[in-house]
Amino acid sequence: MKKQKILEQFKKMEAEHIRQLRPHPFIKDYHTTSFPVKNYLYLMFLIGDIIKVSILALEGGDMHNDRQIKEPERSVADVLRHALDLIPIEEQEFIDKTKSLLDELNQERDE
Asked: How far is CA 31 from CA 19, 20, 44, 71, 93, in A?
């Protein structure tokens, strides 16, 4: 009976916290993830910023070509903001709660 209660708690926590990765609809054993964007134009700017940041990294920040990247600091900041969106914070809460339940089970077993 105790195992059933714990299983129910795990299912409830999963529904509350597991959001970042979803099973891929077509590729077995793969997942998808997403992050918020306002619209297609915003997405295109983000992709452009990722490319610009990559160029800056490859060139060591020295822009000696004829196509200067305007506002490189803004591009880097935008890419880093989106990287923050990809950190699975809610999933970490699930891991913490799972560990707590497992500790509780281990404690009961040792008694």
From this structure: 11, 9, 23, 34, 20
